[in-house]
Automatic annotation (TrEMBL):
This is Transcriptional regulator. It comes from Hoylesella timonensis S9-PR14.
Length: 44
């Protein structure tokens, strides 16, 4: 995310990518969408 701290968001999609594994997409309250491998995300 290029942020110094964790950002809260809501998971909007989860896909099983055959090349990198599980990919999670999350949307923040201000509408920014982040996505990446599941280990880059953690529950609040």
């Amino acid at each position: 995310t290029m942020k110094d701290d964790w950002v809260d968001g809501r998971v909007i999609d989860i896909k099983d990518n055959p090349f990198v594994g599980v990919v999670v997409s999350a949307k923040t309250d201000n509408g920014v969408i982040f996505f990446g491998r599941e280990e880059l995300f953690k529950p609040a």
